[in-house]
Amino acid sequence: MSINKAGFETVTSSFAPHTTSTVELKPNYNIPVVLVIASIPLLLAQPVVGGVIGLFGLFLMFQAGTLRLLFTATDLDIYRGEKLIRRFPYQEWQNWRIFWDRIPILFYFKEIKSIHFLPILFDPNTLKACLEERCPRI
Hints:
Mean pLDDT: 87
Helix content: 25-40%
Strand content: 25-35%
Oligomer: single chain
Shape: elongated
Number of helices: 3
Distance between the termini: 14 Å
Strand order of the largest sheet: 3-4-5-6
Largest sheet: 4 strands, antiparallel
């Protein structure tokens, strides 16, 4: 930690990428497909619950097909088509975690100012490898 000009403590991250290549994650449709399939029998027993789960699965399927995650030398970038919609500089990351290693379904990371939970809609093995290489856990 250091003190800035205004007298506030600032936190600097120890994350430093070890590579300069850019890696684009391939989509993974496992979670959306499981949700859509699980919603079918639920539609018979609980139509509202089944409909909500099915629509959520279709929404995640659309997101997996349209979003692109790129690990660059300095940032995690999220694109929709060719448009950059969000950039997460590694230097602001404090921690990350992939929940349920055997069946990875949720990716968590904490920045200095915010916390993010994302469903794993991309190749979990490449995601983990890129995270370990570019953002080693503290």
